[in-house]
Design a protein that fits this description.
CATH superfamily of the largest domain: Type I PLP-dependent aspartate aminotransferase-like (Major domain)
Shape: globular
CATH class of the largest domain: Alpha Beta
Distance between the termini: 26 Å
Strand order of the largest sheet: 2-8-7-6-5-3-4
Number of strands: 12
Helix content: 25-40%
Order of helices and strands: EHHHEHEHEHEHEEEHHEHEEEH
Number of helices: 11
Length: 355
């Protein structure tokens, strides 16, 4: 992996092990944003006259990278915004299967609306727990994070594909915020019916942007009540269209366009190259943390895990890490560290040395 200190200046000053909390601004993204706002400065509304064409091109870029039809993509400011709109499509008697202690922006909106709910535990047997709950509880919807934000547990994507094949009527909704950007992902080939994400973490696209993907059958769900002039612009020309209900107002071309710039950088580096570096670091980190008994007991036993880890440690150790310019987060009962492609083995070694 080439030296990325020029592309991501922060890594030249700090040991940034906090992509699970916030991604970084790249030089590529900064250059694109400055050009965007310079155009706005000197062109004013003439630039905005081209907004619809710009967003059509952006949808095609995002859809091309993740294999989703451009017409099936909703551009949203964040996952939570889109998910709350989505939930308006379901009847009160809908039964949801959730994971215990999953990300609050998934579980809370479902709980708040009074839907029927059952749960599966997050442990060594996560996939078996989900399958058992589906067979016993017969939920209508499974909603979960691909990667758990506290401890980095990752769902087996092939399991979701087989689960969908076995139970085709089960609607699978996934949050990809802690996953998209670390490995290739093909939405149409996945077992996921609806995928939503914020892009400020592993995509390194900055804040205020995200998207939702929908498989064709999902477009027949009941229309959410959200609507506005933005719902019938560009590709969303039908007032009764499903995707347009997620975009009732204007779309910030600076924020959402940043996703396109982030994709450009990922393609320049190579998503396979990124995956290799992330896998290298997470495997070395997993082995080192397990040897030092820094992880929950079941974590090393799982076949699938992300590059996010929750290691044993208190606020005193957290402060010590900060003093050594190691950026991480307090989460759950420990300290969360996470490794992206701009990290190196030296970063891991520095962390282990301070611990």
């Amino acid at each position: 992996m080439k030296n990325l200190k020029k592309e991501f200046p922060v890594v030249g000053q700090y040991t940034h092990l906090n992509t699970a909390g916030s991604g970084l601004m790249s030089e590529t993204l900064l250059d694109w944003r400055q050009e965007h706002d310079l155009d706005y400065l000197i062109m004013g509304s003439k630039m905005k006259d081209k907004q619809d064409a710009f967003l059509v091109k952006l949808r095609k870029k995002i859809g091309g990278f993740f294999n989703c039809k451009a017409t099936n993509i909703a551009l949203v400011p964040n996952f939570s915004h889109g998910f709350n709109i989505l939930l308006e499509s379901f009847k009160k008697e809908t039964k949801f299967l959730l994971l215990e202690n999953d990300y609050p922006s998934i579980n809370w909106p479902v709980e708040e609306r009074g839907f029927k709910i059952c749960h599966a535990a997050i442990n060594e047997h996560l996939e078996d727990n989900i399958l058992a709950a589906v067979e016993k509880e017969k939920p209508d919807v499974l909603a979960l994070s691909i990667v758990q934000y506290i401890n980095g547990v990752m769902i087996d994507l092939e399991f979701l594909k087989s689960l969908k094949a076995k139970y085709p009527q089960l609607l699978i909704i996934a949050d990809g915020t802690q996953y998209l950007g670390v490995a290739p992902f093909d939405f149409e080939e996945s077992g996921i019916d609806i995928l939503g994400t914020s892009c400020y973490k592993w995509m390194n696209a900055g804040y205020g942007n995200g998207f939702f993907f929908f498989k064709d059958p999902v477009m027949q769900l009941a229309l959410p009540s959200t609507i506005g002039f933005g719902s019938v612009r560009g590709l969303n020309s039908d007032k009764q269209g499903f995707v347009g209900r997620f975009e009732p107002g204007h779309i910030d071309t600076l924020a959402l366009g940043s996703v396109g710039a982030a994709i450009d950088l990922v393609q320049k580096v190579g998503i396979d190259t990124i995956e290799q570096q992330v896998d290298l670091l997470k495997n070395k980190a997993l082995m080192a943390f397990a040897e030092r008994e820094l992880l929950e007991g079941f974590i090393p036993k799982r076949k699938f895990h992300s590059s996010i880890f929750n290691i044993r440690g208190d606020e005193k150790l957290f402060d010590k890490l900060r003093e050594k310019d190691i950026i991480c987060s307090l989460r759950g009962n420990g300290i969360r560290v996470s490794f992206h492609y701009f990290n190196t083995e030296d970063d891991l070694n520095k962390l282990l040395k301070v611990i």
